[in-house]
Each structure stands twice: as structure tokens, then as C-alpha cells.
Amino acid sequence: MTTHELPVAEAKTNPNPPRHQPDSPPPTGRPGGPDWWLMMKAFLTQGKQIASCAPSSAAMARKMIDGIDWDAAKCIVELGAGTGPITAQLVKRLKPHTRALVIELDPTLCARLQDRFRGVPNLDVVHGDATQFDKYLAERGLPEVDHVLSGLPLPSFPKELRNAVLGTSARALSARGTFRQLTVMPLVYYKMYARYFDDVKFRFVPWNLPPGGVYMCRGFRGTVASVK
To answer: What integer pLDDT is reported at residue 40 of this predicted model?
Structure first.
């Protein structure tokens, strides 16, 4: 695994920038406290940028990657990885020809990810902004993505920020790629995702705290910026 110091986005795409200086690396080493405590602190201080107050269950993480053709997948991007429950499932299934790019903006959570997945082949943990992941792909010579796995609370984002994340995903995904969105509010935002995608399916996951599910989305509808 390689880790990289990358600049955070400008304030207009990041309403709550990290507290450390942008030109300094995120904290190194294993930050203190169990995963649930790190997630709870992040949720309480950055609620609009954190999807849940607790890490996703193993059942939720498995559902997020269910149905991926691992023999065909060449590149997978995870946005807002938190403490890494979905990343852990990715690591179990990655093939030698598949690259995984894991992006986390929170410096403490990113440090936990870097520590946990240090040395994993074909997996990069990036301290950076989800709206810029196409740039991170280009830096690694990766032309397109087969699957985007989002743990970001997109419905809570301002429309401009949400469209920036989805617009980057639309540009990066292959023609048959999927955008997969974690949620802990089952079906509540189905209509919102249907405004962005031609094909939206929801898979319920009861074994999670709180119960939630995954939106499986394909085929962006026209220009993301035009979605109301």
C-alpha cells in the first residue's frame, strides 16, 4: 500500500475543512480509541460529513460489494471509508489485477485506515477530497473505475457538493460501472438517487446499527449539474 499527502478541496466544496494545516501530512501511527469511539467523535463534530455514528456492520460491508465481478474489475474507489469495514471486505476479495483507491478526508480516520491496511498490495489510502478522486486516479495512470463505493452522507451535503461528488463519479465510471451508496435510512432517499441515475435498486440490510441498506445505481441521467 502507498499513502499520499494530498491537498484538501477549497472551502466551497468542503464546508468543514480538516483542523490540521493543508500542507502538513495527516497524523501518523494508530490513533487512540476503538473504532466506534472514533466514529462517534467524528459524527458529533462533523455530522453532515459522516454518514453514521458507528462503523458499518460486516453484513452491510458485504452487501456493499455483493455482485462485483472480481475477475473483470480493474479499479474500485471507496469514498468516505471511515475506519475501514468495507475496505476490509475489499481486501479479502481483491485480485492481483485490481487496484483499490480508498479516500478519507478526516485526518484521524485516515490515519486509522493507513495503519490498518499498511502493506496491502494494490490498495492506496488517500487523505483527500472525494470531489477530486478523478485527479488521484490520473496520478496513478488509472483511466476509469468499475465501481464507486460511497459511505458519504450525500443527502446531507449541499447540492453543489453532492453534485461535485456525483459529477466526478460520472466522469470516472466505465460505461457499465456501478455507483453504490450506503445508507442508514432505508428507501428514504430513493427518489433523490432516481433523479441522478437511470437504474436504482435498493438492498435492505437489517443486521446493522441502525438498520440500513445499499443503493445500487447505474447509468447517470444526462448532466449531473442539471439535476434539481
So the answer is: 54
Q: Domains in the chain, please, with CATH?
A: 30-226 (3.40.50.150)
> Distance between CA 172 and CA 178 in Å, rounded?
11
Mean pLDDT of 16-35: 42
Q: Supply angle C-alpha 8, 134, 212, rounded to 5.
A: 80
CB-based contact 83:110 (threshold 8 Å): no
pTM equals 0.78
Residue with cell 487512540: 32
Residue 67 corresponds to which cell in the numbers above? Answer: 455482485
On whether the CB atoms of residues 68 and 77 are closer than 8 A, the answer is no
Q: Give the C-alpha distances (Å, rounded to integers) separating 221 from 167, 188, 198, 226, 228.
A: 11, 20, 6, 9, 12
